[in-house]
Amino acid sequence: SLNLALRKEFNLYANVRPCRSLEGYKTLYDDVDVVTIRENTEGEYSGIEHEIVDGVVQSIKLITEEASKRVAEYAFQYAKNNNRKKVTVVHKANIMRMSDGLFLRCVRDMAQKFPEIQFEEKYLDTVCLNMVQNPNKYDVLVMPNLYGDILSDMCAGLVGGLGLTPSGNMGLNGALFESVHGTAPDIAGKDLANPTALLLSAVMMLRHMKLNTHADKIERAAFETIK
């Protein structure tokens, strides 16, 4: 996809998706406030797959120490900069001992450099279970690519869907912000489009650019309108 190409071209290694309950938008949950941080460049989405023989296809999950350390540092620094109290690493190292094991070790090592941030380790399936029972158990979650793709959409569902959740793709030399719901041409002209995710993604972009006053005005206007 074009999105994937942009992430690779500009080395946008961390996907950041804040999911927060919005006053005035009623869902089954009214106290969600979690941030998913997803490694954006490798894992099952490395694009390495091939047919070995007829009827047998192999897909390679790539995990590197460099990428794992980089996204781990971003997660802890994000927590520190945004007054978050806890980082949870989401993994399946009990099954994928080498690949997820490497990712887990890198996050563990990084946790030691941020003693002021609480740190915990959770299996992916446990997080999914807990998220639908009590989402306020979690604060900032960091994980490999595929897990983050699935879990971030699940979190969006808790607060009302992809039409309400912003997204940022962060790199060392650039950043890309987007509403992740796509262009939805099937509802064009029907007065059904929800601009909230786009507006809140713009708010993320402005804060990244240190234009906090402008960001606050747009965010406040959006929240007041929804309320």
From TrEMBL:
Query: What EC number(s) is this enzyme filed under?
Result: 1.1.1.41
One GO cellular-component annotation of the UniProt record comes to:
mitochondrion
Keywords on this record? Oxidoreductase, Tricarboxylic acid cycle
Coiled-coil region: none
Against Pfam families, the record matches this protein to: Iso_dh (PF00180)
What biological-process GO terms show up in the record? isocitrate metabolic process; tricarboxylic acid cycle
Q: Which InterPro entries match?
A: IsoCit/isopropylmalate_DH_CS (IPR019818), IsoPropMal-DH-like_dom (IPR024084)
Would the keyword Oxidoreductase be found if you checked this record's keyword annotation? yes
Top class in the EC scheme: oxidoreductase
List the Gene Ontology MF annotations in alphabetical order.
isocitrate dehydrogenase (NAD+) activity; magnesium ion binding; NAD binding
Give every Isopropylmalate dehydrogenase-like domain span. 1-227
SMART domains referenced in this protein's UniProt entry, alphabetically: Iso_dh
Family, similarity comment = Belongs to the isocitrate and isopropylmalate dehydrogenases family.
Question: Any idea what this protein is called?
Answer: isocitrate dehydrogenase (NAD(+))
Q: Which gene underlies this protein?
A: l(1)G0156
